[in-house]
Amino acid sequence: MTAEELIRCHARALAAAGRLRLPLRSRVWKGQAGEFQGAGVGSSLDFQDHRTYVPGDDPRHINWQAYARTGQYTMKLYREEVRPVVDVVLDASESMFFDPQKAARVAELFCFAVEASRRSGANTSVFLVRGDAVRPLAPESISLHRWLDEARAMKAADPALPPDLSRIPFHGNAIRVLVSDLLFPGDPEHAVRMMAARQGSPIFLVPFLQSEATPDWTGNYEFIDAERKSRHQHRIEPSVLKRYKESYTNHFTMWKTACRRHQCRMARVACEPDLQTALFAEALPSGALETAN
Amino acid sequence: MLTLTNPAGLWALLGIPAVLAIHFLQRQAVIIPVSTLFLLEKTQRESASGRRLDRLMNSVPLWMQLLGVLLLTWLLAEPRYQKARSTQRVAIVLDSSASMAVIKDKLKEKLVASLPDLQGHATALELTVLESTPGRPKLYAGDNPEELAKALDAWQPRAGLTDPSQALRLARSLVAREGIIVYATDTPIEAPPFDARILSLGEPIDNVGFTGVSIGEKEGAKVFQALVRNYSGHSTSRTWQVELPDGTKTEPRTIDLGPNAMVTLQAAFPEKAERLKLLLSPDKFTLDDVLPMVVPQPKKLALFAATGGAYEQLTKKLLRSLDATEAVNDTASSDLTILSYDPLDPVLPAGHAIVFVKDETKGGAYLKGGIVAEKHPLIDALNWQSLLVRETIQLQRRESDTVLLWQDKRVLIFLRETPATAEAPASRQLCFNFDLRLSNASTLPAFIVILHRFAEELRDAKMAPMSELLESGQPITLAAKTGADAPELTVQTLGLDGKVVKTDTLPAAARARLDAPLEAGFLKVRQGETELLTASVHFADTREADFSACKPENTLDQGSAAAVERHTEEDHWWRAWFLLLLAALLVSWHFTREREAAKKRAAEPHPA
């Protein structure tokens, strides 16, 4: 992808972030002061409870009117306001970028996740993962569009290995957005558990191509593995194609089942329509995103 | 039985590997990057590399094309089915020349082995075997290869060079137009008549053999001279020796012969030996490697000159020029009398005679007019045009006389034949109706020849023992006693070892005719107790001994399409197969077109 294309993808992501946002309000947050109601007692204007004064309390929150009535110091308690924490993880494997259409959609989703997180004032951390290689991404890399170069520069021991999420230093009690096509073998249970660890709230944004889901192969093919660049000769008969489609469907059914078990949100985003159409079609119904107002 | 009229059509089966190769090549037609390979490999393990055959299954165009190739092969091979009742007639004409003896065994094996091919597609075979020599009986007729082999074993080719046309014509008439004629020879002929096929197994072999023998007299001893010839184009050497009747042999002597050279072997005939054999070290052609011989002894002709001195010189010359003659002094004991006609004593004596006119006047003018010879064996092909004759007195002619030579209307020579009577035997008299001394007849070759012919006829008709050197198969005429009490002629054929091989009898006849045996050996003919002939028989056909023109040739397989059509019938389903072939091609084309469209779609930017 060229820099111009990255800029255009970023622009489309910003536009989408204006209409959609991450589902930050659907949960109670703890942490630094911010715009979202925290689980603890804080200094916001929202009254929460009374309790007896104990030495050390902030005297500004003594309910003087109650003291006048009862002669005892009573403290007014207010709900705290905290900044949510969002970890955005991009699967930087080759399968995400081998097709221009898919690469554009990956760039859009990645930028959208980062920008939507920033707009909501969340403390955003961005990670790139490729097999067993993990790399944190500086915040300015996205706005400067250098993130793609950094992602492609990553070297994994085996590019075909599933992304090793255990190496990512996830924040506790954070929303974790994984942008990945999930096209790697293995049990999805492990990956979902890793994403949901330490009270994390995983959101899977999964770009996919119609040619992956419903290919029209027939005859002899020489397939080039996107990850390893190895060549594989196959003859595709109608029966084989049918079994492939069933396998593809089963693969994502397993992911959806795992996500449902761990109360994760997963949205498969088609690459062919424009970004907002695709997000509204899949991400909004699944609860992975919500409207901005 | 199924027959492929055009076996070359089976080459169309090469279309099967071609179709398979094309389908294999097609597997690399579409190259696309893919991110879901792990899903594909998990579900399609049977399509992995290394199982190419599986990858060819279930492709409709492939199966249709393979079916098309098979149908096309079937149609091109033109299969035909054997008819239930079809007979192939085959006539084999064997070259009966003696040189075939060399390849007889090989020919037998080849012919027996060729019978299935000759039978071809027919259900039955009708076989006739003839010899190329006209007039010989069939060697074999039937359909049994073993009996054919026996007949060929018994066959003895001993004849000379024979024109096979007559035998081939007979063979063609036997097998009709559709039959096959095979001319088995060792010297192939160009463009054999009557559509005959040639089977020649001959080859130019090096042969050395006797070509002839003569026995003369030198210094009172009988000396034979045998001619040995090398028929090959390069030098060779042989040994020869003489074998006497008691089995003793002389020491072998070596002779060296240059290319195509002839050498004369000469030696004295042992005085007491009746017969002997000359032996040459054997080669492949053995017939001319042995030369039996006896001392030839022609029948003696007794001459009596009764010309009174007028024709003394002529008589002496005649005695000198004729072989085996003796002079006698009376008519009764003579076989031929030379007479001069005296008008004062016009009665001629009985018996065989040559009669001249004796005219002492010497005054006649030369005869005028054309000289015309009658058609008669005695005078046939003789030239008398330079004959000059003076008019002389003439013999008294009888009506029964046969005129041999005319000058204008005057008879010059006539033949008087007197039939046998109770008192006297038959006689012939050759009469010269002019005075020989008053003509130039004695200087004419024709005159000498007619005298010799007459004398030899008399010698042939004389019943007397004789010895001869005969060639195999040579015709012989023998004078024998006739009459009611005349015994039959006994013909004894003796082998080379002098033992009697065969004894035949012939009815008594004034001129008994027989042929010398085909095998070398000896021959004896007797009438009662009278010995008529003692002879040796040797092979002396130099054309048969020369193998330089022999060469192999085999045109047995020049089968005609007509024979196949006659014995087989076509596959009646060929039209259905043709339509099925078209259908297969159309179906293949239809599915291929669909696949081509899919390929085009895949060739566009269409990764997975």
How is this structure best described in words?
The complex is a heterodimer of chains A (293) and B (608). Chain A has 293 residues and is α/β, with parallel strands linked by helices. Chain A is built from nine helices and twelve strands. In chain A, α1 (3-19) crosses α3 (100-119). The model of chain A has no long low-confidence stretch (mean pLDDT 85). Chain B folds into five domains: 2-77 and 572-603, no CATH class; 87-204 and 549-568, 3-Layer(aba) Sandwich (Rossmann fold); 208-288, Immunoglobulin-like, CATH 2.60.40.3230; 301-461, Rossmann fold (3-Layer(aba) Sandwich), CATH 3.40.50.880; 466-541, Immunoglobulin-like. Chain B is 24% helix and 32% strand. In chain B, the strands form seven sheets. Chain B has an eight-stranded mixed beta sheet. A six-stranded mixed beta sheet of chain B has the order 6-5-4-7-8-31, sandwiched between helices. In chain B, strands 24-30-29-26-27 form a five-stranded mixed beta sheet, with no helix packed on it. In chain B, β9 and β10 (221-230) form a beta hairpin. In chain B, α1 runs antiparallel to α4 and α5 (104-119) packs antiparallel against α6. Classes of the chains: A alpha/beta (293), B alpha/beta (608). Chains A and B meet through β9, β10 and α8 of A and β2, α2 and α12 of B.
